[in-house]
């Protein structure tokens, strides 16, 4: 109703600003605990739906800052962005902050354009699995590992047993399938601008400046400057935040643990492990 009333006002009294919704996608992907919800489709779907619902917005902006994580959640977020962009006929502009690597880059590729800082870390198109082996430790402390299974391959790559070459080969096969999916996704979105460098899909990562040269990103820039250049000085970025519950916490932020639905001890333990894992992901890129 208010919008209709404004249309009858003299032009000088009308609001000439252009609102562009902004969604921030930050953190390790898929690493959720009772105390904290990681970056996942369930965590960001409401913000994405709300952002793309802005009928008059000329584009939707995504700010990506993620070192990666779950390949499944990465692709689910990517697909939801593309589905909404096509359904609502919206251009998607992605701005990379510190890092868009591995799954973080998979999400960034959902953008019609990727804008980076010269020092952003971009790339790492690959798949990794890591763990530890404790066989010698068990021998030293006199512990015997006993495992009983129905199904000869039910236990593979057990850290308390010697490595098996056949199991390793099987794992690498799975990794290659996931890697191929990642490669196809990137090529499907950016084949017309990608460099023919053999290193692009090697798992290496680069600065934002080099990423533009390789075709992994489109240009150097920042959110405010880019939006003003494209949509005028009166453009207004509008951050779409996660919904909050009656306690003022973001939905899914772990209030269940505080209310007693989750053991506080269990919650703290999982939070500590998740924090260490996430910290290791960021540290890989010097952050």
SSE layout:
Blueprint: H1 2-6, E1 18-26, H2 41-52, E2 59-66, H3 71-88, E3 91-101, H4 103-108, E4 113-116, E5 121-123, H5 135-141, H6 165-190, E6 205-207, H7 208-214, E7 219-220, H8 223-231, E8 235-239, H9 255-259, H10 264-283
Parallel strand pairs: 1-2, 1-8, 2-3, 3-4, 3-5, 4-7
Antiparallel strand pairs: 5-6
Summarize the structure.
The protein is α/β, with parallel strands linked by helices and 287 residues long. Helix content is 40%, strand content 16%.
Describe the structure.
- The protein has 287 residues and is an alpha/beta fold.
- 40% of the residues lie in helices and 16% in strands.
- The chain has 10 helices and 8 strands.
- The protein has helices spanning 2-6, 41-52, 71-88, 103-108, 135-141, 165-190, 208-214, 223-231, 255-259, 264-283; strands spanning 18-26, 59-66, 91-101, 113-116, 121-123, 205-207, 219-220, 235-239.
- Strands 1, 2, 3, 4, 5, 6, 7 and 8 form an 8-stranded mixed sheet that branches.
Q: Hey, roughly how much beta strand do the residues contain?
A: 15-25%
How many beta-strand runs? 8
The chain-level structural class is alpha/beta
Shape: elongated
Q: Please, how many domains? A: 1
Q: Which percent bin holds the helix content?
A: 40-55%
Low-confidence stretches: 252-262
Tally the helices: 10
Which architecture name does CATH use?
A: Alpha-Beta Complex
**SSE pattern, N- to C-terminal:** HEHEHEHEEHHEHEHEHH
Rg, alpha carbons: 23 Å
The CATH topology: 2-enoyl-CoA Hydratase, Chain A, domain 1
Based on the model shown, name its key terms.
alpha/beta; 2-enoyl-CoA Hydratase, Chain A, domain 1; 8-stranded mixed β-sheet; 10 helices; 16% strand
């Amino acid at each position: 109703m208010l919008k209709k009333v404004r249309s009858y006002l003299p032009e000088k009294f009308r609001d000439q600003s252009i609102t562009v919704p902004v969604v921030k996608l930050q953190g390790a992907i898929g690493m959720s605990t009772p105390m904290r919800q990681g970056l996942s489709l369930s965590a960001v779907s409401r913000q994405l739906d709300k952002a793309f619902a802005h009928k008059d917005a000329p584009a939707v902006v995504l700010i990506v800052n993620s070192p990666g994580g779950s390949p499944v959640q990465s692709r689910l977020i990517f697909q939801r962005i593309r589905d909404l962009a096509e359904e609502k006929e919206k251009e998607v502009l992605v701005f990379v902050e510190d890092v868009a690597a591995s799954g973080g880059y998979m999400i960034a590729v959902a953008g019609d354009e990727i804008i980076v800082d010269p020092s952003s870390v971009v790339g790492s198109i690959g798949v990794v699995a890591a763990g530890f082996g404790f066989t010698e430790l068990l021998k030293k402390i006199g512990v015997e590992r006993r495992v009983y299974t129905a199904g000869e391959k039910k236990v593979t790559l057990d850290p308390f047993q010697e490595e098996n070459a056949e199991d390793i080969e099987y794992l690498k096969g799975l990794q290659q399938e996931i890697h191929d999916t990642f490669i196809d996704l990137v090529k499907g979105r950016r084949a017309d601008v990608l460099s023919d460098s053999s290193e692009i899909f090697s798992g290496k990562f680069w600065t934002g400046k080099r990423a533009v040269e390789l075709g992994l990103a489109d240009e150097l820039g920042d959110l405010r400057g880019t939006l003003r250049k494209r949509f005028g000085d009166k453009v207004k970025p509008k951050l779409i935040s996660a919904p909050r519950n009656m306690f003022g916490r973001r939905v899914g932020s772990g209030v269940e643990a505080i209310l007693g639905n989750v053991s506080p001890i269990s919650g703290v333990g999982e939070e500590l492990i998740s924090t260490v894992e996430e910290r290791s992901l960021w540290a890989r890129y010097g952050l």
